[in-house]
Amino acid sequence: MNNTSAEFIRVYIISRYFYLIIFVIGMLGNIFNLVVFCRKKFRSNSCSLYFIAYSINNFMNLTIGLLLWSLTLGFHYDWEYKILIYCKIRRYFTHVNFLLSSCLLTMASINRYARVRQAQLTENRDKYILFCKRRTTYIIIISIIIFCLIANIHIPIFFELHHGACYARDGTYHLLFDIFFLIFYAILPPLSMIIINIVTVIQIRRIKRLVHPTVSRREYHLILLVITHSVSNAIFTLPFTINKFIYYMCKNRITEENNQLAFTITLLIAFMNPGLSFFLYTLTTPSFRDEFIRACRDVLKKIKLYLSHRNAINNQTQQPIRDDSIFSLSMVSQRINSTSSVSSDQS
């Protein structure tokens, strides 16, 4: 592939159109996620709080990440490569959002494991019950947010503009940041989620042998949702990590245009995880799909009720006007008749 065709695919097809398509679909999908998870059936479950926080974080992730990348790579708004403060702030919040998403999914996996253990045990289950309470979940989410903000505080300090790029300062910090990114973004979160979900599945198989299992159908569906999202998170983020690793290992043998094309494609794949989460939930989780259908029906009912109420108000406001006009016409006719009768009597 020559440089002209590679640049055309990278700039005009992927960065402009595909990025914006995933952005719009992702924003709408996360709105639908919030509608479903905030309904009474789901919001009473502590695990749903992690997905509510995850969907809210996706708004910032798609906006600060994907939309601004589209403006930079596709429309050549090179603020990130020219304005230092913009470079530092954007890269800081981009990494915060990525890390926060992984941490929330990891804690959702731990939450489902604790719920399964709670159903298994008859003794020493208080710590699992405490972990699954909503109050504990709120504290954990706030703690995760603070942790992600502090863990990435080095980015606005040591990131700088260098050779027309916004990245880590050359030298020791550059190497340390690559190791930090590899461990905390590429290896540790997916590996933790996979291990926790494997252990959860093993415990579920043991629960099915119980005479009276205490895990409801909705709990099983949430476990399925967490497992499938954890797997998709690993699948979607793996190409970006592999591409970055290959670039550092074979930096001198890869042309800059091919590197930018690979970066653009793998970045698009990475953002499919927050962008297509609604469709993943809908396809894999029956209770989520059923609740979304109920939510749509409730919205349609409210729209019909609003329209019927509005029509009733319009009819009520128009009816007195018609009566008054009829009454005024009758009064005018009576006066005309009275005046004509008086004139005939006088004649």
From TrEMBL:
Keywords: G-protein coupled receptor, Membrane, Receptor, Transducer, Transmembrane, Transmembrane helix. PANTHER family: G-PROTEIN COUPLED RECEPTOR, THYROTROPIN-RELEASING HORMONE RECEPTOR. It is found in: Membrane. The keyword Translocase does not apply. It comes from Adineta steineri. The chain crosses the membrane at residues 17-37, 49-72, 92-114, 135-159, 179-202, 222-242, 262-284. GO terms for molecular function: G protein-coupled receptor activity. PROSITE patterns: G_PROTEIN_RECEP_F1_2 (PS50262). GO terms for cellular component: plasma membrane. The keyword Transmembrane helix applies. Residues 29-281 form the G-protein coupled receptors family 1 profile domain. This is G-protein coupled receptors family 1 profile domain-containing protein. It is a multi-pass membrane protein. Its main location: membrane. Pfam families: 7tm_1.
